[in-house]
Structure formats: C-alpha cells, structure tokens
Amino acid sequence: MPIFVMLTTLTDEGAKTLKENPDRIKEVDKEVMEKFNVKIIAQYMVMGPYDFVNILEAPDNDTIVKMAVELNSRGSIRTLTMPAIDIDSVIKDLKEL
C-alpha cells in the first residue's frame, strides 16, 4: 500500500483538547484505522512549525484526501500530506529514462 507523510499543526482548539484529554491522540488513531483503513506506521510530536509528523499507509490517494478533509473539518488541526516514494522505486524509474 502507498505510504504518506502527514505534517500536522494544532489549532488553538486542538491544543486545548490535547491538554484536557491527551488520550485523544490514540482515539483519533483508532478512528482513522477503522473508518478509513489508514494505518499509522509511526507518529511523533515535534518542535518547530509542525506539531506532529505521521507516517501513514493507505489504500490510495482518494482515501488520504477523504481522511484529511474529515480531520481538518473538525477545526482542531491543519494538515499537509505528501506521498512518500520508496527510494528503490525511484532508482528503478530513473534507470528506465
């Protein structure tokens, strides 16, 4: 399945929710898996312009779009999602040029 990198920033409302209920992170992770069949491979809280880095596995681009729209519509986060391409695939593709 395709891999995606999702960078997430908390809104003020999201930071308030996280402070009041830190377990919300795992609740959303479970919901993402059950509702969208998206697997969270790795998840890190980071410091800088983004609050979280998530490595996701999803069936396709459409699924990631639906998930991102759903999560962003709640008003607690903003996301930037990018497909991640395996380096061996890139090398193979470049050799075919």
Description:
With 97 residues, the chain is α+β, with helices and mostly antiparallel strands. It has a single domain (3-95), classed as Alpha-Beta Plaits, CATH 3.30.70.920. The protein has helices at 12-20, 24-36, 61-73, 87-95, and strands at residues 3-10, 39-45, 52-57, 77-84. It has a four-stranded antiparallel β-sheet with strand order 2-3-1-4.
What's this entry about, in short?
The chain is of the alpha+beta class and 97 residues long. Helix content is 45%, strand content 30%. A 4-stranded antiparallel beta sheet has the order 2-3-1-4.
Average pLDDT over all residues: 96
The value of Rg in angstroms is: 15 Å
Terminus-to-terminus distance = 25 Å
Largest sheet: 4 strands, antiparallel
Low-confidence stretches: none
What letter string, H or E per element, gives the SSE order?
EHHEEHEH
Tally of discrete structural domains:
1
Which terms summarize this structure?
four-stranded antiparallel beta sheet; 97 residues; single chain
Please describe the topology of this protein:
Layout (H helix, E strand, L loop, with lengths): L2 E8 L1 H9 L3 H13 L2 E7 L6 E6 L3 H13 L3 E8 L2 H9 L2
Antiparallel strand pairs: 1-3, 1-4, 2-3
